[in-house]
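Prompt: May I have another protein with tokenized structure?
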Amino acid sequence: MSLTRRDVEGIARLARLEITEGELPVYVDSLSKILSFVEQLNAAETQSVEPMAHPLAGEVQRLRGDAVTESDAHEKYQRNAPQVAGALYVVPRVIE
């Protein structure tokens, strides 16, 4: 699949990216190559591949014990905060 300059400009606008005129051809080429590679992957025959229930079939993964190893120090950390209410950090509103 080949993207056009207009496609990349639309993607950049949606992603809130500022792409300069000099960078635009590079993005068009790179994104087109990525989409072409994805098309190649989609063409791979996967019907006969059996799904895996676990990536380490027949293996045992060592897990650490589920035990508390650190003490609760939230009060210590919140002493440095400019404003705290109900054990929560109070921050300026950014969305109206």
